Amino acid sequence: MMGSPPINEIECVILAAGKGERLGEISKYIPKPLIPIANRPLISYVIENVRKMGIREITVVAGKNYSKLLKLLSDNNGIRVIRAGNFEKGPLFTFLDAEPYIERHYVLILPCDLVADFSFFSEFIRKCNMNFQINLAVCRKRQPLGSMKIIPARMALISKDFFMILHKAENEGYKRVIDAIMLAEQLGIGVNRVPLSSAKWVDVDTISDLLRAHKFVLERIPMPSGAACDSCLDRVLLIKPLIIGRNITFSGPSVIGPYVSIGDNATIGDSTFLTNVIVMAGAQVGAGLLINNAVIYRDRIFRDE
Fold this sequence. Notes:
Blueprint: E1 10-16, E2 36-37, E3 40-41, H1 42-52, E4 58-62, H2 66-73, E5 79-83, H3 91-96, E6 106-111, E7 114-116, H4 118-127, E8 134-142, E9 148-159, H5 163-171, H6 177-186, E10 191-195, E11 201-203, H7 207-218, E12 229-233, E13 236-239, E14 242-244, E15 249-250, E16 254-256, E17 260-262, E18 267-268, E19 273-279, E20 284-285, E21 290-297, E22 300-303
Parallel strand pairs: 1-4, 1-6, 4-5, 8-10, 13-16, 14-17, 15-18, 16-19, 17-19, 18-20, 19-21
Antiparallel strand pairs: 2-3, 6-9, 7-11, 8-9, 12-13, 21-22
Helix pairs in contact: 5-6
């Protein structure tokens, strides 16, 4: 059996053109790839893991958020940001807009909203098989009633030979890359399903997912040793894990944490209690509030419902 392709034969395409509608109202104010998790844009976690694998050529396919992503990523060497002309039709069309820019034989396809341990990505690449045009990551996920189900993990490695099937799927009206992969199987083209044993990941679709990803990241960031209370700033109790940005104004005694990140230049009102909350840069949190499981943008609170 042939092993995985050499890293220098792989490039990556990150799909970042979706509207993020399942996130609700917050997606009207800030593009999904730019929503901060632990004070970093969501998409940065995907890019970080791709680069850790040694993949240097990355194409980010954007939609209406093109100018904002271009501004964010313009200083990142090896990252190309392109505007998808057909992103409204679905992720399959978004991916095909990247085809003219692909030079290497293998393409790693990733969404912009996949937050995972590095082992999640490295195990997948290690287990891929060059005998197949399509390698699809799968993992076991517990269902609401407790049963386990094998599901795709929104990550695939394809060879350039697969583009013929992608275009066939496009012509037949399919909208998703996974639909094209299912079509390939119907046509007798083998798909290597790659089971991931260390499948620790969060696929961010909703506010609930966003907060789970936030917890996931904070639990993996090294915190100062010592007691649970990192420090007390002028009668503000900070409980880790948490991240506090620069130029934060605390108006009076408050309890912040655990699982809180506060972006730069935010203002926190007097007698405020925050737990499992993302406070974006420049946000203003009113006084006397008890806020759990929420995202705060400017003066708006978006809750996990």
